[in-house]
Amino acid sequence: MNRFLAILTTIIAVALAAVVAPAVSADEVPWNTYIVDRTVEVSPDSRKNKAFPMEEGSALCDLHLRAEAPWRIRSSRIAIRDDKTLWFKASDREYIIASGYAPNEYVVVRGELEKPGGGSGKGAEERPQFQVTVPKVDLQWAAKHGEASQEEKEDSVPAVIMVSEDPNDFGTLIVCAPKDDFHLSDPRVTLTWTHPDAVKVYRGNSEVGSGVSWLLMAGTQLELSVKAVRPEADVKFTLKGEPDVVSHERAVDYVRAMCAKVEFVTPAGDPVSAPKDAGDGQNEFTFSAANPGVLTMNLKAKVTPAAAAPVIAADCRFEVGAIGTSAMAWAAANPRGKATGNGAFLTATVAFTGLPDRNDAFGKKKAILQLKGRKLDENDYEVFFPRDARNHPGGQAGSPNWFYYWGQALGVANARYSEDYDDMYGECPGMYRWSYQRYAEKGIIIIYPLAALVDEGDVFADHGRRATSGIDTFSDTCLHEGFHSLQVSRADMVVGIIPSTVWRFGWSWGANNHNHWSVGIDGKLGVAGRDDDGNGNVDDMLITSPGELGHGDDELLDRGLGQDWPTVFGPLPPQPWAGGNAIEDAAYNIEHDNENEHALLDWGSPGKQHKTINKYDD
C-alpha cells in the first residue's frame, strides 16, 4: 500500500507539473530519486525498443511517446509487463515508473495511430499499430547473500564475499536472460566488473574475464561463482543488454560485492614460538589467583575492509575451547559467542570461573570465528593456572596449585604438602622422624616449597650432577621420598612390627642404638640368664631402647658401618655415596635428574609451557 501511494503521489506531481511548467525538475522529486526521461517517436507499424539505463538509487522513469507527423496517437496501452505495481499509464503519450530500481522492469506498450481530421471518408478508417518495448537485463546475487539479493537493496547492500580458497565461500552471481523485442536485437548480455585483480569469476570450472558476453534464450539463466582474491571495499558488477534502436542505449543492471578478510587479533600468533600474555595478540591466558579463579578472554578480529565489519557482525560467532569443569559464560552482549561490531573489529568476551579439576584441562586450545557456520579464521592459544596460588578445586586445602596439578599429572599418591621447612625438598616421615618414643607416620611423603624450584643434583649420583627445576624437581623429590617410603616398608618386613617390643615401630632409622637384631637360638635377648644392659633385670625387653638386644648369639640384620642398610637389601652400594650415606645414595639414584622430562605437563604460570619454553620461572 505504501508503495502504491508513493507511485500515485508521483503521478499527480508529474501531471500537475505538465500543466504549470514545461518540465519536471529533479528538485521536485524525493531527494533520493533521480529522473530518467526518454522519448520514442512512433510511426505506422513501427516496432522500437528503448532502454532506460538506470544507475544507483531509485529513479522516476518517464517514457514519452510522440507520433511521427502527420500522425497522432489515438490510443495506447500496456500489453506486457513484469510487475503491475511499477509501470503506470499517465496518458496515451506517457508511461511512468515512480520508484524504479535497476534492473528496469520490462514493459511492452502497444497503440494505434490516426491522422488528424480522419474518419469521415468511405471505407474503414486507417489506424496503424505501433509497439514500444522497454528492455530489461537482470543480475542477481543468490539468496544466500541475504539483503544483497533483494532487488531494491542490491545497489546499497553489497554481497560480502570472504577471501578464501574454499569454493563454499565463493559468491554466487545469477545472470538472467534479457527481456526485449528480439525482432530488433539479439538476446545478448555483457558482464563487466571493477577491480579485476580482487575477484575471479568462474562459469563452472572455467574462469571468465570482465567483458564476457553470452546469448541467453528466454527464461534461462546462468550461475557464476565469484572468488574473492584480496580485500576490496567495492567491486561493481555491471550487466548490459544490446543497444536499443532509438539512441543505442543499453538496459543495465548491477550489483556490488565487498571482498573481505577476517583475521584474529586476539588470540594471534603462535603461543609456543611467540607467546604473549596481555593486550592485542594475547595467546596465553591464566586464571586469576582469586577464589574461585577467573579467566577472561577478550576476543578480537580485524575485518578488512572496515566497511564489511558492520555488515557481517550479526552473522559472526566466536568459539573457544572448554576448560574442563570450569564454568564458561559469554558476556551479555555476546550470547553464544555472537560477535559485536566495533569499527573495523569484531569482538566478544568470554569468562571461565573456577579452575578445572584436572591438569589436562589446561594447555592448547583453539579459537574459531565463524560466519553463518563457515570458518573465517582460527588461532591457537594456551590456558594456565596460577602456579603459586591456592585456588584449585580439590585435594589438600591450602596447598599451592603446583602441588595439586603436578601431583595429579605425575600420578603421585600419598603425598602431603607442608611449609615446616624451607631448606628441604621433602621427607619420608617414617624414616626421617623415626624414634623409639613416638610413632612416625608411614606410607606418606611430605613435600616442601623448595620442591617447586631448583635442585642442583649431587655430584656423587651414578649419573653425576644434573640440575633440575620446577616440575622436574618436584618429580625427582617425589621419586626420592617415595623410594625412602619403600625402603621403610621393606625394612619393617625384616624385623616386623611387634607391639610392646623394641620393634613396635619397626626398623629403626638414624638411632644411636639400633634395633637391627634378631634373638639367637637361645630365644633370649642377649646372653640368656644374664643382665646384659646392667639395669638390674635379666633378659628383659625394653621398648624405648635396644636394652640387652645385640649381645650373645643375637644376629645382626644390617650391613654394619652405621648405615641402617638391611642385609636383605644386598651389598652396600659402592662409595662415595650421594647424600652422604648408603640409604640416601639409593634414593638419589632413583631420581631421573632429567631436566624438562615433564615440561609438557607443566601448565603453571610461571612454568615450562608459559612464555619461554622449558623455563620454570617465566
Describe it.
The chain is mainly β and 618 residues long. The chain has 4 domains: 2-134, no CATH class; 138-262, Sandwich (Immunoglobulin-like); 267-386, Sandwich (Immunoglobulin-like), CATH 2.60.40; 401-516 and 557-604, no CATH class. The chain has 6 helices and 34 strands. It has helices at 2-20, 309-312, 401-410, 429-432, 470-495, 582-588, and strands at 33-42, 46-49, 58-67, 72-81, 87-91, 94-100, 107-114, 129-134, 136-141, 159-162, 171-179, 188-193, 199-203, 206-208, 212-215, 221-228, 232-240, 252-266, 284-286, 294-304, 316-319, 327-330, 340-342, 345-353, 363-371, 374-386, 415-417, 426-427, 445-447, 454-455, 468-469, 517-518, 555-556, 604-605. Strands 10, 12, 15, 17, 18, 20, 22, 23 and 24 form a 9-stranded mixed β-sheet that branches. A 5-stranded antiparallel β-sheet has the order 9-11-16-13-14, with no helix packed on it. Helix 5 packs across helix 6 (582-588). The longest helix has 26 residues, at 470-495. The protein is rod-shaped. The model is unreliable at 1-31 (pLDDT under 50).
What would the keywords be for this entry?
single chain, 618 residues, Immunoglobulin-like, 5-stranded antiparallel β-sheet, rod-shaped, disordered N terminus
User: What structural class do you assign from the helix and strand content?
Assistant: mainly beta
In terms of DSSP E residues, the strand content is 25-35%
Helix tally? Answer: 6
Given the C-alpha coordinates, what overall shape results? Answer: rod-shaped
- The low-confidence runs, each spanning 5 or more residues with pLDDT under 50, are 1-31
> How far is it from the N-terminal to the C-terminal residue, by CA?
70 Å
Based on CA atoms alone, the radius of gyration comes out at 46 Å
How many extended strands? 34
Overall pLDDT metric: 92
The oligomerization state is single chain
Helix content: 10-25%
Number of domains: 4
Largest sheet: 9 strands, mixed
